[in-house]
Amino acid sequence: MISGTTLIQRFEQFASPQLAEKWDHVGLQLGDPDRPLRRLMTTLDVRPEIVAEAIDQRVDFIFAHHPIMFHPAQNLDTRNPQNQMYADLLAHHITVYAAHTNLDTANGGMNDWLAAKLGLTNCQPLLSAGTDPISGEAVGMGRIGSFNGQMTPREFANYCCRLFGVQGLRLINHPADEHKEIHRVAVLGGAGQDFYANAVRMGADAYVTGDVSYHFAHDMVANHLTVVDPGHHIEAICEHQLAALFRSWQAANAGWDFTIVENRLNTDPFTFVVDGKED
């Protein structure tokens, strides 16, 4: 049996916290990682319903992508559902660890998973982040690569909708580009509108990212960049991919005999409604 600390040390060789953005809050979020690790859950988000499921499944370690503490708590009034969630985690001795923008940047991490899901080949980083402090390899946020399908922007949007299993998505496209073919695609999980100019500069026909705002969308149209916004929640791909990564480490390390479960609850807060009906 190992402790959570052992897993954390191994993971931080894969996705060093030094790769995280300066504003980010990665690493240990709550609890005692030195406790024995018996049952681990992988999840995109740590929300009250996730914690309730973890308690029900007797989980003692939650490994998440999104941090639970972006902002310091002003008090610990448990009438606030967020504070009650912290109390529930502590009461049940559940340790929480988050790998966010370091996992987005690491080679073999979030954006490689998304690029592979899209079927991209010959990928390179969308924006450079220097070198990995452990391996010395070049790293970067996002990916851009070749797409072998012969699709128009609308066909590509429908493809992404099916691929990511979303109820709907937003397509941003110049009217004159309705029939262009998509051959080079950039992707950045989460909210990547700030980096659309990188996609334009590197010759992307389409850019897949989430949380695009109105004025950014106008600039994307003006630059003839097709953008597919399937939402932030497509990063839930990490739940299975992290579990698979940990299982590979279990196979290579004697004594790593803890159980791994993947979150099955949908934490996407958005529902698409068309003509007054849920779609």
Gist of the model:
Keywords: Metal-binding. With 279 residues, the chain is an alpha/beta fold. It contains nine helices and 13 strands.
Task: Write up what this structure looks like.
Strand 5 (121-131) and strand 6 (138-151) form a beta hairpin. The chain folds into two domains: 4-103 and 236-261, Udp-n-acetylmuramoylalanyl-d-glutamate--2,6- Diaminopimelate Ligase, Chain: A, domain 1 (3-Layer(aba) Sandwich); 107-230, Udp-n-acetylmuramoylalanyl-d-glutamate--2,6- Diaminopimelate Ligase, Chain: A, domain 1, CATH 3.40.1390.30. 38% of the residues are buried. With 279 residues, it is of the alpha/beta class. It is globular and about 60 Å long. It is built from nine helices and 13 strands.
Report the mean per-residue pLDDT as an integer. 96
- Give the class-level CATH name of the largest domain: Alpha Beta
How large is the share of residues in beta strands? 25-35%
SSE order, one letter for each helix or strand:
HEEHEHEHHEEHEEHEHEHEEE
Task: Considering the chains and any ligands shown, give keywords for the structure.
279 residues; alpha/beta; Udp-n-acetylmuramoylalanyl-d-glutamate--2,6- Diaminopimelate Ligase, Chain: A, domain 1; 2 domains; 6-stranded mixed beta sheet; 5-stranded mixed beta sheet; 26% strand; DUF34/NIF3_sf; DUF34/NIF3
